[in-house]
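Because discrete structure vocabularies remain unfamiliar, we turn briefly to a single example record, giving the amino acid sequence and backbone structure tokens:
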Amino acid sequence: MNKKHSHTFQYTLFGIAFGFCFPVLSILADVLIFHDLGMNLESIYKIHQINKLHFVIDTAPLFLGLSFGLAGVFYDKVSRMNSSLQVMIKTQNKFAEELQVSNQQLEESTEELNQKNEEIAVQNEELTVQKKKFESAFSRLEESINYAKRIPQAILPSMSQFADITPHFFVINKPKDIVGGDFYWATQRGGQFLIAAGDCTGHGVAGAFMAVIAVSILNYLVNERRLVSPAHILQQADQRLLNTLHQSTQTNTKDRINEGFDITICLINPEMKRISFASARRPLLFFSNGKLHETKGDKTPVGSMQYGAKAFNEHTIYYNTDDTFYLFTDGYTDQFGGANNEKFKIHRLRTLLTEIQDKEISVQKDLLKTNIERWQGAYEQTDDILMMGFKM
């Protein structure tokens, strides 16, 4: 038995042992009183018959054992409660010590945190100052670009110039940034008209610079040099751009500027109902009698020394009344979007144009704009977007 909880057993034994003393002493007293009785069972029986109190005295071991046992139970309970209380006191003391340590650590952490907060506050002040400087610089830059965008806009032809070719004409021009590298161009040479859609390398300010250079070259070749052949214009534009940007095989590779532009240029002869065109890496789509036709351009751009010697081919088309033509850069077909965030691609454009080509040209423009905006959705615009369409 566990010594810690043995008082019940010990006290019970003590009570029983002590209780036996009463009947033994009582019997000895009666034997002394009644001298004629001996110490045997018969005498003890006679004594019990004579003195009825012995029945009570004989039960003393039982009652005393029970009483002392209950006292032992109570003592054990008190001992256990005392032990539990001691454990609780120790636990409480330990918890108090741990709490004191934790409070000390918390004070140290609070002090470190306050120090960090002060450092962060200083950094925030510095960031606020830098942010204001950046916002001011960005605002000035944006104002400058917004002001400068009038220059590339000014060199683009007006819609009235296209109206001289045909009243059924539209242009969708959507730069990725404030300014862009896509451009459209038109001019008249006698009874013929030249129109073009171009896409310079890059977008934003860099693309806009290239677009200004490209339009300047086209104006020079047609207005000064009197060129009208689309293939000849592209050939000369390639050489002039290389010279303008000092691109040559003698130029150091690290200093060489491999910039250029893709372009489709058409020469329209309304009298002969003929369109001659040449293209650098852009296709020409057109519908004749409701049927889609596609003529791919040459695989080299205007400019850039990466492609070596170049040659541009000229194609000729004789059109009918109500035939529709489309010139466009790759911004429309390269736009990411849709359910899977993928490129729109040329095959979807072919399908869309087939569905809308018999509608009024202004309606086609609206449908093309709505379609690409719906396709783009919440995604960022991928590139500059330019599309031109006209019905002869």
Remarks:
- The two ends are 116 Å apart (CA to CA).
- The first helix runs from residue 7 to 33.
- The CA atoms of residues 278 and 314 lie 5 Å apart.
